[in-house]
Amino acid sequence: MLDKIYKKGDEFPARGNTNLLRFYSSPTCPFCERVKLVLVAKNIEYETINVNLVDSPDWIRERNPGGQLPIIEFGPDNKVLYESLIVCQYLDEAYPETRPLQSRDPYEKARDLIFIELFSNLWGPASRPFFMSADLSADWPQIVNGFKKLDKLLADKKGTETFLSGATQPGLVDYMIWPSIERLPLFVDIAGHNGADYLRRELPTVNNYRRQMSGNTTVQSAGLPVETFMENMRDPYPPRLNPDVLRVYSQQNSPFAYRVLM
């Protein structure tokens, strides 16, 4: 059961303990999941404020003018940070007493950031049809092409290592791409194919990596609520009753959809 999800018009919940980090999140947002993974991996105590991103309260924009999540707020002076990768890097560096998630080698750290960017640049076009298209079968060749490029990119980076971090446990680079890898077979299911079979046959590196990551205790604790995700994604396509009215294909809590709705 999720806690209350705040929407426009809801009163701001005052911070009762300013020493407790506050995490403004949205239940199915992959960028918020990145931060949750790092919070759990670093064993950071925090409270979560869940927000309806499409109909968010005004006090979210007071903290991030772009209105996007995730956001963290911390300290007696209410410091605020946003943008998932920046937030995650900050958390890793601000809490050095627990296992570092980034390489201590500046070059390797920079290479990991390049990989995250390359991965995001491939994932965006491959996953976009699932949010924008009324006919996934027509877009399937584009989707397949993107997924296969992701598999190769992952293979080139990972090599023979279990995790992208090169360590015995996942690192920041692993947690930054995990929300996408986690959703990949669900997207394949939605497109009318068997996600598990498809990964096994066509995306061997993704399949093996997903299996390894799924066994990680942080991932098990902080991962995506699959039922909630599928409920949001599997609604039947509604016919256009008025062709003169522009239709926006959106997903609740998607930051990209929110840009258009603005």
Automatic annotation (TrEMBL):
GO terms for cellular component: cytoplasm. Residues 19-99 form the GST N-terminal domain. InterPro entries: Glutathione-S-Trfase_C-like, Glutathione-S-Trfase_C_sf, Glutathione_S-Trfase, Glutathione_S-Trfase_N, GST_omega, GST_Omega/HSP26, Thioredoxin-like_sf. GO terms for biological process: glutathione metabolic process. It holds the Pfam family GST_N_3. It comes from Medioppia subpectinata. PANTHER family: GLUTATHIONE S-TRANSFERASE OMEGA (PTHR43968:SF6), PTHR43968. Coiled coil: none annotated. SUPFAM superfamilies: GST C-terminal domain-like, Thioredoxin-like. The lineage of its organism: Eukaryota, Metazoa, Ecdysozoa, Arthropoda, Chelicerata. Keywords: Oxidoreductase. The keyword Protein transport does not apply. This is Uncharacterized protein. Residues 105-239 form the GST C-terminal domain. One of its GO terms (molecular function) is glutathione transferase activity. Belongs to the GST superfamily. Omega family.
